[in-house]
Amino acid sequence: MRSLLCCTWLCACCAAPAADRPGFVTRQGAKLMLDGREYRAVGVNVPHLHQIHNGTWFHLREKYGTPERARAVALEAIEDCARNGLAFIRFFASPGYPRDAAQLYEPDPAGYWRQMDELFAFCRARHVRLIPSLQTIPGPFQTFGETGRAILDPRSRTWAWVRRYVEQFVTRYRDDPTVLLWELVNEGMLHADVEMQGRKLLPKGVFPAGAEPRVDGTNDDSLHFGDYQRLYREHAALIKSLDPNHLVTSGDAQVRPECTSRRGTFPNFRFRSDTWDEWVANNLAAQPEPLDVFSYHFYGADPPAERNVPWKGKTTLETMRELFAATQRNGRPIFVGELGASPNNRADPAGKWLVKCLDALEGEGVALFALWVWHFTWQPEFTMTSTTYPAVVKRAGEFNRKHIPEQLAP
Length: 410
Fold this sequence. Notes:
Layout: H1 2-14, E1 26-28, E2 31-34, E3 37-38, E4 41-45, H2 49-54, H3 60-64, H4 67-83, E5 88-92, H5 98-103, H6 109-125, E6 129-133, H7 157-173, E7 181-183, H8 225-242, E8 247-249, H9 259-265, H10 276-286, E9 294-300, H11 316-329, E10 334-341, H12 352-362, E11 368-371, H13 390-403
Parallel strand pairs: 4-5, 4-11, 5-6, 7-8, 9-10, 10-11
Antiparallel strand pairs: 1-2, 2-3
Helix pairs in contact: 12-13
């Protein structure tokens, strides 16, 4: 095993760096660059993309009836992007729930990767890039009878499974510019310093028949702010040791508005909202190098409801502008990995807020936006297509034709 890892690392280090290879996005300060030009783009989220393509999604029969219909939806989501000039798709790229993994990835890994190759090839042919969110923190610890903190222990089965999956995925596509960025996990820092004692873990129903997982949390399932910083550093470094061609982002939304007090009083939480300066500083600290690209998620409505939060009195756009300006001064590009209306897109059926947001932030230098959410029947109040939200899709296409015309399907 050690010799295999050494060979993998040497191959990665001997490959030409991304800056010398056409087609790969690189970082230049707070900008993304591609082939000598600044790269800025709007894409979409299809969280279950590979699972409906592969036929393993837990809710497949409930929502689509048959695997054939589910695969058709996945392909149409990609086609709808290509027809309308949407640049990329972010998706949750783990094997899924334990029951989902037991259907394909665990018994037939070759078949799992063959179908992933088919999905990548379909996107590549249509000039649609992918941001795979690996979703491997804290990993499948319940499957192995371990705790959430097992992801920190190199002797654990969770740690070994996660490393194997990341190595398989990253080395398979490290030379493929269809990957726009690697992402670690969806909204990890929102789980930091949350007391898991007495909370519910994954329910028994998402495990294979006959499994008897532990479903009640303990204190040893809790991960802290510092744990996530460590994991982000270690996992980003692992990916970079395997793949010199692609940048890495965290997948974070923001830190919680009470981040400082939660961290300082765990496990006997005593609420105090961060000041604005504390909250901004916590956001910047939450995504340490070697992560390349800052990730934020925002759902907006102006004016927002008044609450005891750091951004009280600011509109969502004002909050975004000020936070993004601080991030860019930190010297890294910004990826708004989820962008939607609040409380949902259905509340703004013409998509006026999203159009306003793209208009306002185009001049702010944000590198990437991913609309939430695309062809996703699980959230009917948020899901959009080019037919249901034409104004938003038109504005996103205009953004891309202005900034990356040569990257779009003819």
